[in-house]
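Quick check before the chapter quiz. The format below is the same one you will see on the exam, so make sure you can read both the input and the output lines.
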Amino acid sequence: MPNSVRRFDAVISDIDGCLGPESAAPMDVEGLAKVAAWNRAAASLGDRPVVTLCSGRPQPYAEAVCRVLANTSLPCVAEMGVWVYDPRDNRFLMDPAISQQHIAVVRGAMDWIAGEFGGAGVVMQPGKTASISLWHPDTNYLKSLMPGLRSTFAAKGWPFRVTSTVAWINLELDHVSKGTGVARLMKMCGLRKERVAGIGDTMGDMAIREHVGHFACPANAEEGLKQAADYVSPHTEVDGVLDILARLLG
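Here is the expected output.
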């Protein structure tokens, strides 16, 4: 896949906060169409890297965005590394390090959470297989649950990381992450770190930063992540992504 005409062979981008808003606001379809045009040019001209995804979103959501972006040549990472979707042959690949025992633990945790917090309005994002994402309209209340979740999981021996994004709590298996997903993607495609760029907006995207040779953020990124970036765009969300891509073409 390396090509001397281009500086990078792939761009791995988060979705929420980068290609779309962190909130429930509409996605900028005009901006996404420009990213899709970029990917079509990458396929026909070979002068620029293909944009693919690394997201905490469930696999069907990531696959749909992958299709919108006209990415037909690079796998994308979904559900914080649980899944890699490969558009080249329409395969859905769960991390082989996830066992049926792990799945059973996740389901047990979901049942416990529903019993403990369902009455308080805490909901679980649908469509996830081996991780759990929690939401509540009162984000401060939601985040207040994190210490208790950590202590309960430790007492029960459930192997979860408890992390958060702008409006969600994410419960992820200790040995699976965006980083393991990116590593799988790169191995599948023979990609080298120095020829891959990444884009993210929250500290969870440090897992992308650690696997790429060049990392950039839109203007709305968390300050801690900006400190680890090679470039911070003055533009937000998909406009920031488009600005970052333009710089990669130079």
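If your answer matched, good. The mean pLDDT is 95.
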